[in-house]
Amino acid sequence: MPTVQTIPRPADDDLPAILGGRPMRPAGPPDWPGAEPNVAAAVQSALADGSWGRYHGPHTAKLAEVIACAHGGCDVSLCSSGTAAVELALRGLRVGPGDEVILAAYDFRGNFQNVLTVGATPVLIDIHPANWNLDPSHLAAAVTSKTKAIIASHLHGGVVPMSAVVRFAREATSPIPVIEDAAQMPGATIEGRMAGTWGDVGILSFGGSKLLSAGRGGAVITSNADIAQRIKLYTQRGNDAYPLSELQAAALLPQWDRLAGNNRRRTASANRLRELLAAVPGLRPFENDVANSQPGFYKFGLQYDPATFGSLPRDTFAAAMRAEGIALDPGFRSLHLTHASRRFRAVGTLAHASDADARVLTLHHPVLLEGPDAMQQIADAAERIRRHAAAIRERGPGC
Ligand SMILES: *Cc1c(COP(=O)(O)O)cnc(C)c1O
Questions:
Q1: Is the CB of 181 under 6 A from ligand 1?
Q2: Which pLDDT score, from 0 to 100, does residue 13 have?
Q3: I need a surface site. Which of 41, 145, 154, 271 has the fewest CB within 10 A?
Q4: Residue having the nearest C-alpha atom to atom 14 of ligand 1
């Protein structure tokens, strides 16, 4: 009797993970922060020498000094978060009730909230169509006699052309202070200058997912003695407000030493990914043609075009990429679409910010410390999802 052999159907090697295939990156996104022996040693030593239990000690002092040196000798106030840093920047500039603050309609939500916190009104301007960051050409239409500050944030590997922002602000009838939000790119170079040093005040974040992380934390940077003094008065009233602890500073110092090297590795990966994605229609990296700039990459921002992916909705595409082991997520919600219109003043139609609300994707940074193979896997995963877009669309995003 002939034996009937059941030949197992060969696995469809091309099947996307969201449809049951093998993930392109089975290990998933790298941990962040990863194992950092230098951080462990620094924290151990702070535990051993008792500095961990002090209000003020050598680590916070040293961190403030290191950041000040890196930013051309500015005054540095450490604080509890990047969000607190923006609030302190606004207070240092004496922004208050009745004032207006200009920012991009696509920006970190906390920046909008901070303007309200100090009693001022956010004035939202549109973003640049190709780099999806604040577009200085809209500043002129936004200024009134109430304008007291401009917040410029560098987002998702895009860079705000700061020389244009600062030139505009200085040449205004009444000069306008600029807050440069460098939370997403510590150590970056913008038009030949360190990110955070262009405006009157700059801010950094040491939040849990950021490039330098103590779980929480931030810094305010300024070269203006009056602003520095007002921030110090505000934070040192009675007891310290919004402080950064010795233990946090101890954990950050060794990371600062590695920042420049890590920024170079991330930039090399981002450049490689940019090259690979030139052949992947529908995933367009935030354009970055601001001269003499070396952006940082807390996120690598992409403009997603659903039409090229068989009408697969952005959030479903992101879910399919995450199933492949790639940390890709929708970006921020745009501020004018998520707040009551009485809370802000809109300048123009904010059409690009509305577009960004629907189409931004962000790749989280840890994978950028890996090599070119990882970048190839990201591009390959996108193409594999495209080949199966119809089936994924039918299945829906799942849970
Ligand atoms: C993360 C972030 C902040 C705030 O930092 P936290 O430390 O999380 O409060 C501010 N601005 C931008 C652009 C950010 O990405």
A1: yes
A2: 76
A3: 145
A4: 183
